[in-house]
Queue: 3 jobs
Job 1
Amino acid sequence: MSIFFHILVTNVLPMGIMVALGVVLQRSFSLDIKTLSKLNFYLFSPAIMFDLIYRTAISVSVIGQVMLFFVIFMAGQYILVESVVRARGYEPSMKSAMRNSVLFYNSANYGVPLNQLAFAGSKETLAIQVLIMMTQALVPNTYGVYSVNAHKTDMRQVWKTILSMPIIYVIPLAFLLRGFEVPIPQPIATPIGYLSDAFIGTALITLGVQLGSMQWRISRPHLIDVGLSGFLRLIAGPALAWLIVWLMGLDKLTAAALIVSSAVPTSLSSVLLAVEFDNEKEFASQTVFVSTLISIFTVTAVIFFLRIEV
């Protein structure tokens, strides 16, 4: 029970308050959602990714294990969601929205605090979570951009859009600077810190603004789609992760960290992509909102069954 209340009070409730503030602001002032989306994509998200990679110690062996897990896990998740996409016979825009709602999960502003709570601030598991967050930041800014644009524009424009995403340059730069122990000058380090600190708040406000701009009424077919997305993300996700870590024969702590990292709700990136490229915005917002609420119970169950000992 104590874990349940810790997750509720330290992760879900603060996120809910921030989202609610975004809803209130949108209903009061009709904010420009496109501007908020661009701030997240081009400033705050790259800043927090650079900051965490540069400051977190990660061994080569851990990188190899996590990357192998991530590739297998994403392939398995893709197969599962693709079976639903084909069975439901979605339009192209909805196909990409459903895939994004399952493949992109909230490894940053939900996953990092959850990791620290579940593993008592372990530096080893934090390193694993940072790697997952890095890959989860990279995929939406490459494959995600492609998936929401491929059906409505030419490939040259799609690649131009992908190459304009700062995150694909920030990640290797952070690893290089850390690897060669290059110090960041204070006039640069301070703005990076400010932007990094602003990421979580701005992303959650953006979600709230999007939720505040839509009708809170879901038709029966839409409700089914949101339910399918939540099932694949919150139940099939950690179950698949458990199977993979078992087959890989990973040590108990690494396996537990990877399973917990896979159990978090749909990422805000799916909403930001939907808003930025005008692709099924309401469905994207609803999947994030509903999966975040349901994760109160599913994440608690995952942690309980893992019997984590740190």
Job 2
Amino acid sequence: MLHAEIEIGSFLKVRRAALDPAELGLPDGVNRRRVRGLRREEVAQLAGISVDYYTRIEQGRAPAISDSVLDAIARALRLSDGEMTYLHNVAAPRRRPADCAAAPDSDGGPCTVARQTVRPEIQRLLDAMEATVPAMVLGRGLDILAWNALGGRISFDLPALAPDRRNTALLVFLDPAARALHADWEAKAVEVVGNLRAESGRHPEDPRICEVVNELLARSRDFRRIWETQSVSECLCGTKSLLHPRVGELVLTFESFRLSADPDQALVTYTAERGSKTEGRLRELGALALGDPVLSA
């Protein structure tokens, strides 16, 4: 499990270490600074709370922290909107996921939540777009739950993968093909970690998210390096460049849409600029036989 007391402590320490005291108008003080960033007492002063209380918050020993205190700490640490949301999520009282409350393990251990599924109506929507728009649905922990035919052709061979391996983070960090595929693999890796950490803040006790994070921490040195930066950033739209081995470079704009009836799922679509080389290459890709190998993520 991603224990809240560990997560909030690590997050706050990294965030205060990232700030420059001089830029905030803070003096060096009587004792020379031995570490980067702000001291605990300086964060407490900027947030308008006692040093003891801030220390207990950072050590995970302060239950039921009010929203106003969290907002004050967020302002003191100059957190972004995404980071502020993450702080509120990991500081909230821990509750079992709704699915767990109904079906705990018989031995009293942590429950196992069934893999998410996509409603037939959403699959029909995906299939309706497949001639021109690659699309897929992502679930908790960045699991790839469904896709259309064209979406599968710009992705790994998803049908050939075991269901528990159809996960964006696992593919980006553990499949060697991903590095050849992304024109800027490091940027893609940072994006994925930022999204996964945001997911872990929303669902800190979700077994699937914990499984993915723990596997990556154990198997990927690059994932550990980026995860330890405490980066939180949900990338919901933008442009990506894929070096597809069959049709060449694809420059695609992507958009993510939260499904109102399934808020833990997001529909992700990819489009090309009209008249561009990528538009033509997507048509070429769509014409390939379904059995042809595909290698991108």
Job 3
Amino acid sequence: MAHEHNHNTEAIGDKRLIAAIGVNTALTLAQVVGGILSGSLSLIADALHNLSDAASLVIALIARKIGRKPPDAFKTFGYRRSETIAALINLVTLIIVGLYLIYEAIGRFFAPQPIEGWTVVVVAGIALIVDIATALLTYTMSKDSMNIKAAFLHNVSDALASVGVIIAGTLILLYGWYWTDTVLTLMIAGYVLWQGFSMLPKTIHLLMEGAPEGVSITDIINVMEQVEDVMSVHHVHVWEIAEHSTALEAHVVIKKASLPDIERVKTDLKRVLHEQFEVSHSTLEMELDGSVCIDTRQADSHRSEA
């Protein structure tokens, strides 16, 4: 039942992403038409920005589907890290968008451009509604997925850009305050870059097989050494196979060498590691007096290391 529930949840998530891709693609076409009818280059430029949001959602969706593929002879840990790669791609493009916004803002500071009438404000308002709808579709999923969060941030940046166009356009049309467009653009760019640069180190850390956030090797060793018949633990390596999937390998020096005792200690260690540190895959090399490695694989060919 849990497996079926997981499939249902994934299917719902995919449908949300497909819906978000559909509305963003439709919005892009509407902005292009609005830009041509109003003669506004800014609307067409915003359409290209929105197209990048749709592309980020497509990347996220493809990565989710690839990530579900089971392990095989080429990818023995599976394909879940594809979502992390997708997150990296989307974060890098998000940073590029932020830098581009700064470039545009500086250009407008020296050469202010008037808003091309109410058509721009109306289309920006429609864009904002679509952006909010897309954010609602992906917000829940973004809490537990670095991949979806990166795509979600793309959409949030576009929503803020739409708000900026509406506010700046209204102020310019009413009071001729062209400088508001530049100020709001810089604020949006600052937010985009802050979000992008704050998530980028976490993504790279995962790809570099770094230790999970908040996990201390010292704490792991201390907990493992408290298990009955464990003398000491060394050569400990812990890393994230993918987001929310932690692996560990270690050498464990034990007091007893009988196969039943070895298996009991190993079972206790795996249970403790899973309960206290959420380790989903652990490989333990058992040693006697720190000098002899005990290989139990032949004695129990069906034992799982996971």
